[in-house]
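[job 0412] stage=fold_complex status=start
inputs:
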Amino acid sequence: MSLSDGKTQLRTEEMILNVGPQHPSTHGVFRLVVKLDGETVVEAEPVIGYLHRGTEKIAEDLQYTQIIPYTDRLDYLAAMLNNYALCHTVEEAMEMEIPEHAEYLRVIIMEMQRIASHMLFIGAYLLDLGAMSPFLYVFISRERIVELFNEISGARLTYNFMRIGGLRFDAPNGWLQKVRDLVPQLRADLKLCQDLITGNEIFLNRVRGLGVYTTEQALAYGMSGINLRSTGFKWDLRKTKPYSIYDKFDFEIPVGQNGDCFDRYYLHMQEMEQSVRIIEQALDDIPDGPFIGKVPKFVRVPAGEYYTGIEGAKGELGFYIVSDGKDKPYRMKIRKPSFVNLQMLPELLKGQNMANVIAILGAIDIVLGEVDA
Amino acid sequence: MWNWATHPVSWLSFLGMLIGTVVILLLTLVVVMYSIYWQRKFIGWIQLRIGPNRVGPFGLLQTAADVFKLLIKEDIIPNKVDRVLFMIAPIIAFVPSFMALSVIPFSRTHVFTANIAVGALFYLALSAITIHGVMIGGWASNNKYALIGSMRSAAQMLSFEIPLGMSIVGVVLMAGSINLNDIIAGQQHSVWYIIPQVLGCIVFLIASTGELNRTPFDLPEAESELVAGYHTEYSGFRFAFFMLTEYVYLFAMAGLFATLFLGGWSGPWLPGWLWFAIKALIYITFQFWVQATMPRMRVDKVMPFAWKVLLPLALFNLVITAVLKAVL
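[job 0412] stage=fold_complex status=done
writing structure:
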């Protein structure tokens, strides 16, 4: 018998709960206004914009090279990929030739960055689910990568390392060897993570069958990256629309089956293994040569509209540039995967328990720097 | 064996009780402080960290410093809380946890604790009172997170209390007494009840974890969802009281576990209190180990787990025990 049955009607009210912007599990300054009936979510409304810095508008006043440091701050966990996405778009627009050596180095760095970003996802997600130890374990592996980035670029988080036409510096002596030594280490770290987390019954119980959506839904919301692939749809720009030199490598695109949170978690794991494979191959084939191509003193993108997307850590990261032929973009638009992937959240949360809200939000893997830009 | 209950209450015996209480309280405070230290150190090692090592040698005074800091903090009572309830809630939560300690036999001589006939029952009854403090605290805080946290806490403690009680009944059946000292005596004559009562022991371990609101059942304090659960609005020494409650219960539960399943203070060679300490430490360390290893359970699967898995298991154990008892 429900409470409203019978003659006496018990009046119950829905409770509005503000999750964030200062909440431990919103991955930054994200606010979620949830309407709760007991502990069940009736309605959820994401409120974003707390970290909005107007990157796109600022870019209009900057030369193309000057925009690069701003891209660092989009998805600050994968700054190298952001750097590359911008440089790649400009290079494509200018039909620039990139030296082989630089391209290989870029791929190595980008895949390392992807691993670092995914590692942090694993840690942060498990932290959301209440397990503290994995967070500290993945930080060790992430630290190995960050240390190498520090050595090559001089920074640990916001690298500002990619340049239009190549890279800022060449790899220092012995750096490639260090990466080579890192590969088996990363494999071991990944295995450790698999052993520690993937088989945990409580974890599986928590994330299996949670936050399920179909391929059609995902496509309708314009999702990309792991969020799309978890539904079983094979869409990875590195394969479907190869850029850089990704067509030279032998790697697979893991896809999920159920489109639930577990698939999203597990795909991160599998993707890291593929990234290690790519790094390994790139290290074997890397030729000698210059680390930056011939770049004019002022980078001027010919008038027109250009869009190029790359497979970022979170999904399709694209830069859309409208140029009037000057050394600054007339208008720049960033396709931010986190922002797009986030749009389905209200639909996913409806009818869920409050505890699952965090689990679902965490699996979507947003970075607020990117969502708000 | 000194027994409070058999002596008439006089001013002298009252003084004795008072001294006993203070001694136990101080002992408890030290135990709590060092179990927090041990928790941080132990989990630190598991997580490949060093753990506290700044204050005092090996960081031994870290918790003392933390407690001191909490005590000298301003006592903040937010504007729109129910003042009276907000202020007494930590006390309501703490007192029964401390009283529950009074029946745990620490050693053979049993100096400062009561040897009452219904020890196990007394413990269970008292531990059920704490939930009122938690609920009142959550309600009076006028905070939504605290409210949800305290509701969860109440639901969870109720659900886990029953399998916990049922798993204790198995032991009681074995010993033929509900007095904790008789239970220890029973184990001295035969074997530790962890062997015949292995199923009951497992149920007890899981249910007590739920009862203590510890990982993987730490939903009431799920910091990634509910900020800090029922004590979100508390700070300073009122917060310290809630923390104290939690760890006193951990200690009390460890004592109960040692008494029921590991033979309490009994053991060869070493003095009784040391055996008790070792056995309690095993339970406490087990809890910390689980805490460092496990994620949190899903809230909608915890309560069914308690009712549909633990309770039948405990009842099954009870039936087996009864049958064996009758047959053997």
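[job 0412] summary: Chain A has one domain: 52-372.
[job 0412] exit 0
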